[in-house]
Amino acid sequence: MCGIIGYIGGKKSTDILVDGLRRLEYRGYDSCGVALIDPGQALYLKRVSGRVDALDKLIASDPIKKSAAGIGHTRWATHGVPSEDNAHPHTDCSGQVVVVHNGIIENYLELKEKLEKAGHRFKSETDTEAAVHLVEEKIKALNATGRSGDGDQLEPVFFEAVRRAAAELKGSFAMAVIWAKCPNMILAARQHSPLVIGLGNGENFVASDVSAFLKHTKRTVFMNDGELAVVKKDSVGYFTFQGKKAEHDPVTIQWDSTMAEKGGYKHFMLKEIHEQPGSVENTLRGRLLPLKGDVLQREINLPSELIKSVKGVQIIACGTAYHAGLVGRYVFENFGLQTSVDFASEFSDRARMVGADVLTIAVSQSGETADTIYAVREAKASGSKILAITNTLGSTLTREADFVLYTHCGPEIGVASTKAFIGQIAAMYVLAIHFAVMRGTIFDADARTYANELLKIPRLIEDALEGEKAIARVADRVSGSEHFLFIARHINFPIALEGALKIKEISYVHAEGYAAGEMKHGPIAIIYKNMPVLAVATTSSVLDLVAGNIEEAKARGAEVIAIVDEDSRKRIKASQYIVVPKTLEILSPLLTVVPLQLFAYFVALAKKCDIDKPRNLAKSVTVR
Ligand code: F6R
Q: 99-116: per-residue pLDDT in tens?
């Protein structure tokens, strides 16, 4: 799980590569590097164990004079420890062929054995190195068949060598390859890992993600699996691994590069928490108003026969997206459609339980989570149709799915997911209401009430965000605690899980999310004097029960911080109150999650943690 970038054009390549790598650091950040070819065909290679800032300093201490093509990489280790030797780019024995790679080459051991027998010397522990030696071997074989030459004459040899190598690699890869003897081109190959091309004027880009080049161009091509791109300064050509020409129409990305920057906030996470009113608005936009069956159909092209005939829904997702799925289950079942939710990583054995009469909904911010994509393939193999809920245009998930509902939340850079989560939940409401209308399990008047209340949510999130300073004070006061407990019932139970996940991932402290009613069946034993217990206690059908569970926690010495609305506050006795606006019980997760995200943020801030890039994590988990 890494970020790759390539640049060819007239500007200072190192600046463009380093800037692109900074924007890709959310994909991994344990080591990084760049490689460039100067017009004299010499290779310039710089790698560091550590972050892009260190690479930038290294480049500044020994700058390249002029440059043409260049590639770069920021790494999240899979094969081989984080170190300079294992950092990309990797070179062949001649030191002239260079590769950056994201993904996992599954047959690398087999290839390595063969290549070592043929005389290649490996210098790293990575799977990637097999790819670069394989390209070298193919070049040798092609030269041996008399296709040698120099400069541009060698371009067909380079292309053919990379094509043959790509066709032989198994597993997942997005690669960019340069060869010192062909300074005027970059070759890029995609198989099950994200890869996009940025089309500029007299310059072109290759990257794992558009954020790496949006500052320079918005014109983008999303490559398909099994394709190679020949990237030159003034042209890009596409081919299949079989060597056939492929066609692509560029799309124009609406995000601008400042949308991917911090916009005055201290961290991306805080910025993204504040962007949530807009995220919900964007997810709802144009999808709710007429409340007739065809509104969503046009957007997601989900056939009405399918909506009417399915007997149930199966949701698969990981982490925060899984919590959105749990909220989705309450919502779908509220409208009478049986729904199961599974971790994508645990879905294998359950895949045979779905079939053509179950719609599988895969939820993923990135659309690149390997566990989710594999689970989708398993559900598909069982005959289920797949609907993807994702934030990422052109992602692998969107290609695997039969139907897609985009959340349109904009780029989420903070590793801890916030605005994408709220967009995923909003998408669940849109879908569930649409299904209920189409299946006749809701009265039109009720559907209108839900829709109207949903449309008020963005403003109510703004009100909830006004509690930020008070939340910061509470969080700061209890930030020294080693343990946190989050409790809730019913549709807010997933929010308790999400509150605990947020604090774990960015503050590195132990936190548990628990169904409030389950506490007395064992976990209540962990409560000790002054332990912070965050309880979601907004107005609901289960408020009295939650009030009782709060009393039980207090009786064991807990310091209860209650998330309430103005009405429920009168019925709850807690040490601290965080007030959110009142809405319908079923919509309350869209508001109750906001203070818990802020709470996690301020605890992490007090502990001086690296909030946007927590240790051991990466934004997009593209390995299983
Ligand atoms: C937590 C978080 C992760 C992701 C999970 C799935 O804040 O971000 O738990 O939710 O890795 O990622 P996506 O949604 O990209 O499939």
A: 999 988 989 999 999 999
d(CA 412, CA 212): 13
Residue reference for tokens 């062929």: 97
3-state SS of 105-154 is ECCHHHHHHHHHHCCCCCCCCCCHHHHHHHHHHHHHHHHHCCCCCCHHHH
CA 102 to CA 90: how far, in whole Å?
A: 12
Domains of the chain: residue spans and CATH: 3-261 (3.60.20.10), 265-455 (3.40.50.10490), 457-618 (3.40.50.10490)
Mutate-to-test residue for ligand 1 from 320, 322, 326, highest number of ligand atoms within 8 A of CB: 320
Best probe residue, ligand 1, of 26, 267, 318 (max atoms within 8 Å of C-beta): 318
CA–centroid distance, residue 516 to ligand 1 (Å): 25
* Residues labelled as active-site residues: 2, 619
Q: What is the pTM of this model?
A: 0.79
Q: Which of 587, 530, 580, 586 is nearest to 553 (CA)?
A: 530
pLDDT tens digits for range 495-547: 999 999 999 999 999 999 999 999 999 989 999 999 999 999 999 999 999 99
Q: Is the CB of 9 under 6 A from ligand 1?
A: no
Do residues 431 and 296 touch, judged by C-beta distance below 8 A? yes
Q: Is the CB of 1 under 6 A from ligand 1?
A: no
Dig out the tokens for 47 from the structure: 């790698």
